[in-house]
Design a protein that fits this description.
By secondary structure, the chain is α/β, with parallel strands linked by helices. A hairpin with a 4-residue loop joins strand 6 and strand 7. Helix 2 runs parallel beside helix 4, helix 5 packs antiparallel against helix 6 and helix 5 crosses helix 7. The longest helix is centred in the C-terminal third of the chain and has 29 residues. The structure holds guanosine-5'-monophosphate and manganese (II) ion.
Length: 330
């Protein structure tokens, strides 16, 4: 074990767990995996998960129905875990974290420098759920816990596809599916399956996408009016930016949805040449080298113009470094 969760909890009576706003598969899997483990090992303690209501696709993970989504006023927690996030992205759970006796921050985002009294930040690990797996005593791992953690791992590794997948990730995946849950259905229903409306929005977004920088960059956006027309929520937009990134020749994909009159939430994905964590951090966001996001002010064109300058600079830098390496081969 890499980090002694039970020792860190000491004899805490009240333990809280939260992640980031618009919780994704890794956030939900890590929070519920940890919740299950602490509930099992510390039956005397009260353990609660606080999150914005996650997408319904995660409903079969044990503990989903126990997630507190309305953030009532609470006495300070003895220990509060912040998973897969920095405090800035906690939303309403931030007040619990601030007031807690002990703050524990567990994350794998390269942009997180550690925001707790105790920090466990490992950017080289593909998902926060994988970090939680490493902290769980193997003899306590049961099928429900395995399902929660596996969900988190497949969502942040793109079903073991992205570069953040290591041989160790696969070994952990093997041990998790060994517990016997229907992993094939879980992958299909939480990762690939879309509702009809989600598919329509994706289709429309791909049709309206615009390529620039000689096709190395692609952008598409969805405005509030269109979101309202489809009765869509931000969680209905998952996967669109990855689809843009899959287009041949694309080094960097940008997907934006309007959150206010002059405000967009921006998602970035890249191939080998662009560090999107750096780009997003410049605009006050963050994330990983190949997947990051931020919130930007201005019109669609303002946002694209501002962000494309940074992407172009990085592409040029990559080309220059690449040329140098090619020269030195001779
Ligand atoms: P997505 O594009 O899927 O929303 O996010 C991609 C990655 O970037 C995720 O790991 C997410 O946590 C991170 N991310 C997205 N938006 C923000 C943001 O506004 N601030 C920070 N710090 N990270 C973000
Ligand atoms: Mn994550």
């Amino acid at each position: 074990m890499t980090f002694d969760l039970l020792k860190e909890c000491g004899n805490a009576r009240r333990i809280g767990i939260s992640g980031h706003v618009r919780p994704d598969g890794d956030c939900v899997g890590a929070c519920l995996g940890l919740w299950q483990y602490l509930t099992k090992c510390l039956p005397e303690a009260g353990v609660q998960v606080f999150l914005e209501k996650p997408a319904d696709i995660y409903r079969e993970i044990k503990g989903f129905g126990e997630i507190v989504t309305d953030f009532p006023e609470e006495e300070p927690f003895d220990v509060f875990f912040l998973l897969d996030s920095v405090p800035d992205r906690m939303g309403e759970a931030l007040s619990y974290y601030r007031a807690a006796g002990k703050k524990i921050n567990i994350d794998h985002h390269v942009s997180n420098k550690g925001c707790g009294d105790v920090n466990y930040i490992r950017p080289e690990i593909g998902s926060t759920s994988e970090l939680i797996y490493d902290m769980i005593a193997p003899d306590m791992l049961d099928q429900d816990m395995a399902k929660a953690i596996y969900t988190g791992i497949i969502h942040d590794t793109g079903v073991f596809q992205y570069e953040n997948t290591t041989p160790a990730t696969m070994e952990k995946g093997a041990r998790l599916i060994g517990s016997g849950f229907d992993f094939s259905r879980l992958i299909r229903e939480t990762f690939y399956q879309k509702t009809y409306v989600q598919a329509q929005i994706m289709g429309r977004t791909l049709m309206e996408s615009i390529r620039f920088l000689d096709g190395a960059c692609i952008v598409s956006a969805i405005d509030r009016k269109t979101m309202e027309f489809y009765h869509a929520e931000p969680k209905d937009l998952d996967g669109i930016v990855n689809q843009l990134r899959n287009i041949e020749g694309v080094e960097c994909a940008i997907f934006m949805y309007q959150t206010n009159l002059l405000e967009y939430k921006v998602s970035l994905r890249s191939g080998d040449k662009v560090n999107v964590a750096e780009v997003a951090s410049y605009f006050g966001g963050g994330g990983h080298v190949r997947a990051a996001g931020c919130t930007m002010s201005g019109t669609f064109h303002d946002c694209v113009n501002n962000i494309s300058l940074h992407i172009e600079k990085q592409l040029k830098r990559w080309e220059a470094e690449h040329d140098k390496r090619d020269d030195s081969d001779f």
